[in-house]
């Protein structure tokens, strides 16, 4: 497979901030048929309404889909009620709901809950929030915080392989590859298995932009990944049904290009 040279930000678009603008959000239930999005988009275009951003969801197994989007109504005469009424007249539209600004220039999504990522209920925790949690652990427990973070990661890695094996009906190695691949769309970093000796069960994994180390990039003398180091240990231990140990030999916190981990059995 050709290597990916450029990646693009994934913005979940949970809201819009535009001071001085008149903002609204629409949720449109659509028939799951070709041209449904184009039909609704054409109606909005004819009303001279600017669609800012949004999401659409349509499973091939379902007869309906959803289109949730934010619009800028600044200077427009049509009210949200009138726009919703016009959209409901379309033969591809099942229903329309809308919400308006929380405060002037700020609108946040009200319709989508809970958050599902790869069929798993999830939460969003910012990198800065994770960094503050880690700082608090170090402040409270000193060097013992390293062990706490490692054990948290270890537990998460063990359970991840178990859930993937159950969900996809795959072997341990395949589950390991899936678990690492998931880290990219989930925002953890960009991992790659640089080396994998299946006979001796030794591996080298590198991770670009590892979330755990980003807050201290180029600021530390020692490696700072303990949660993810534990996570890798859990992945490999569950996947190969052996006890493993993981060492971080390079780290972006020390100024290295990526975080590099060596994983091998006890």
Structure explained in plain terms:
This protein has 6 helices and 12 strands. It has a 4-stranded antiparallel β-sheet, with helices on one face. The chain has 2 domains: 99 residues, ACT domain (Alpha-Beta Plaits), CATH 3.30.70.260; 138 residues, Muramoyl-pentapeptide Carboxypeptidase, domain 2 (2-Layer Sandwich), CATH 3.30.1380. 32% of the residues lie in helices and 28% in strands. The model has no long low-confidence stretch (mean pLDDT 96). It has 266 residues and is α+β, with helices and mostly antiparallel strands.
Mean pLDDT: 96
CATH architecture of the largest domain: 2-Layer Sandwich
How many helices in DSSP terms? 6
Unreliable segments of 5+ consecutive residues: none
Q: Strand percentage, roughly? A: 25-35%
What's the structural blueprint in terms of helices and strands?
Blueprint: E1 15-17, E2 23-31, H1 36-46, E3 50-57, E4 64-72, H2 80-88, E5 93-100, E6 106-108, E7 115-117, E8 120-122, H3 127-141, H4 144-168, H5 172-182, E9 190-197, E10 202-208, H6 227-240, E11 244-250, E12 259-265
Antiparallel strand pairs: 1-6, 2-4, 2-5, 3-4, 7-8, 9-10, 10-12, 11-12
């Amino acid at each position: 497979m050709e290597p990916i040279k450029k990646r693009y930000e994934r913005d979940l678009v949970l809201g819009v901030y535009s001071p001085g603008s008149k903002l609204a959000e629409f949720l449109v239930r659509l028939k799951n048929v070709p041209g449904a999005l184009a039909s609704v988009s054409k109606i909005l275009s004819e009303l001279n309404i600017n669609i800012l951003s949004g999401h659409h969801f349509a499973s091939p197994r379902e007869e309906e889909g959803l289109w949730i989007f934010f619009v800028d109504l600044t200077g427009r005469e049509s009210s949200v009620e009138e726009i919703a009424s016009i959209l409901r007249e379309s033969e591809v539209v099942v229903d329309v709901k809308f919400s308006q600004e929380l405060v002037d220039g700020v609108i946040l999504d009200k319709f989508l809950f809970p958050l599902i990522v790869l069929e798993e209920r999830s939460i969003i925790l910012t990198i800065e929030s994770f960094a503050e949690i880690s700082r608090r652990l170090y402040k409270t427990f000193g060097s013992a915080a390293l062990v706490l973070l490692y054990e948290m990661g270890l537990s998460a890695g063990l359970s991840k392989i178990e859930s993937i094996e159950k969900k996809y009906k795959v072997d341990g190695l395949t589950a390991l590859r899936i678990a690492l691949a998931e880290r990219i769309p989930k925002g953890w970093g960009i991992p790659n298995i640089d080396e994998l000796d299946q006979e001796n069960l030794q591996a080298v994994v590198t991770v670009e932009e590892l979330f755990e180390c980003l807050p201290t990039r180029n600021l530390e003398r020692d490696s700072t990944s303990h949660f993810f180091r534990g996570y890798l240990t859990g992945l490999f231990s569950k996947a190969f049904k052996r006890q493993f140990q993981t060492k971080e030999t390079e780290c972006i916190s020390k100024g290295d290009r990526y975080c590099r981990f060596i994983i091998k059995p006890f």
